[in-house]
């Protein structure tokens, strides 16, 4: 295992400990307080470069997995330098695999943003589709390598890998995997970071050595039980802050180096294979999670009503179907004030996503009565 970025990450902890982060609103270009889904204003990876004729193309497909709310979507957005995956502060924002594409020089990196690994109980609780659990399997089956994103800032869970993560790594032990310790800007102790890396990797690396030998165990001999909370077969560990972008460039360089000689799967100028209509619906649903309490947003259904692009302006309308009039009133707020706030926030997200002006209408409907903002 190569011990990546440890020295630089420790410096990062010192430099960011007392630093107030700012993000930029796409439309107004004014500073605001940081949010969980901000696209990093600094230290982003460089933009994709044009392909040189005659050179061999290379690509790498990466399945990004982890439990809900560890920052997978923000991690991917800032790695590809584009808002592709909708984000929110609540769990289960991502309900299906999203594909994010980053092309630089002769290399194309394809990231699969997967839903948080869940149990059957969580599927019922959050009204998730039964194929929710199969989405990450589909992504891994098309991947060359697995990235496990882990929240280093959560004092309750940071010292162990979740059983669903371990079970997944065991099931696909034929694929290489690496660990991404996210949100390290929230850590204040250098020693804590060192201990955390040793604990999660089962102490399979030696501090101070650039490389160490990892035990090679056949897939059938790898045994995971409920008492084990670490994985001994990570090929690398990266220390990053997906929110600020720190550490992402080094990880990206590593992935470029792992790319395989083969033709690209996607054109160089696209960032995702999702349709604009699907991105709009998912963006609305993500903001409903932020603005509505508890389990209510998980029971809502969003559908595209209209989509058109005219003179470099996106015109679109989304309908939110509410199970009761009470929930519809909760979404709309007094004088439709909350619905207007949601619409403005989604519009800002879409402007950043599409890179052009957006005219958005969000309407609600319950028992045949329709309200719009």
In whole angstroms, how far apart are the ends? 54 Å
Radius of gyration: 21 Å
Mean pLDDT: 78
**Helix/sheet category:** alpha/beta
As a percent range, the share of helical residues equals 25-40%
> The biggest beta sheet, please?
8 strands, mixed
Spell the H/E element sequence. Answer: EHEEEHEEHHEHEHEHEHEEHHEE
Structure annotation, total helices: 10
Q: Report low-confidence residues grouped into runs of 5 or more.
A: 1-13, 15-51, 206-226
Defining traits:
globular, 10 helices, alpha/beta, about 375 residues, eight-stranded mixed sheet
Write the layout of secondary structure elements.
Blueprint: E1 2-3, H1 6-16, E2 22-24, E3 31-33, E4 58-65, H2 72-80, E5 98-104, E6 107-113, H3 120-125, H4 132-141, E7 145-151, H5 163-171, E8 177-182, H6 190-200, E9 236-239, H7 248-258, E10 260-261, H8 276-291, E11 301-310, E12 313-321, H9 325-332, H10 337-354, E13 357-366, E14 369-372
Parallel strand pairs: 1-9, 4-6, 4-7, 7-8, 8-9, 12-13
Antiparallel strand pairs: 2-3, 4-10, 5-6, 11-12, 13-14
């Amino acid at each position: 295992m190569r011990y990546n970025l440890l020295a630089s990450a420790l410096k990062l902890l010192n430099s960011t400990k007392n630093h107030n982060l700012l993000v930029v609103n796409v439309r107004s270009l004014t500073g605001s307080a940081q949010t969980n889904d901000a696209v990093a204003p600094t230290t982003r990876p460089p933009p994709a470069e044009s392909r040189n004729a005659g050179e061999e193309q290379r690509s790498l497909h990466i399945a990004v997995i982890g439990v809900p709310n560890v920052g997978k979507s923000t991690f991917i957005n800032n790695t590809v330098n584009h808002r592709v995956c909708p984000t929110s502060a609540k769990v289960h924002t991502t309900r299906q695999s999203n594909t994010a594409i980053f092309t630089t020089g002769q290399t194309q990196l394809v990231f699969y943003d997967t839903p948080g690994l869940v149990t059957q109980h969580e599927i019922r609780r959050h009204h998730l589709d039964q194929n929710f659990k199969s989405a990450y399997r589909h992504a891994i089956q098309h991947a060359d390598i697995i990235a496990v994103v882990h929240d280093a800032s959560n004092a309750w869970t940071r010292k162990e890998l979740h059983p669903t993560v371990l079970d997944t790594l065991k099931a696909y032990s034929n694929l290489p995997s690496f660990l991404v310790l996210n949100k390290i800007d929230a850590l204040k102790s250098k020693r804590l970071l060192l201990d955390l890396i040793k604990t999660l990797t089962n102490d399979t690396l030696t501090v101070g050595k650039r490389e160490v030998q990892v035990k090679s165990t056949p897939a059938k001999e790898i045994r995971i039980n409920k008492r084990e909370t670490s994985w001994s077969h990570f090929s690398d560990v990266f220390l990053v802050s997906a929110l600020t972008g720190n550490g992402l460039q080094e990880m990206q360089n590593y992935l470029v180096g792992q790319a395989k000689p083969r033709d690209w799967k996607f054109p160089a100028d696209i960032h995702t294979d999702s349709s604009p209509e699907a991105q709009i619906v998912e963006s609305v649903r993500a903001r409903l999670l932020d603005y509505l309490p508890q389990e209510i947003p998980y029971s809502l259904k969003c559908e595209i009503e209209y989509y058109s692009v005219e003179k470099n302006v996106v015109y679109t309308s989304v309908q939110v179907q509410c199970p009761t009039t009470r929930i519809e009133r909760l979404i709309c707020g007094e004088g439709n004030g909350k619905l207007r706030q949601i619409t403005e926030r989604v519009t800002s997200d879409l402007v950043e996503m599409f890179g052009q002006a957006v005219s958005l209408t969000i309407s609600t409907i319950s028992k045949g009565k329709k309200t719009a903002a």
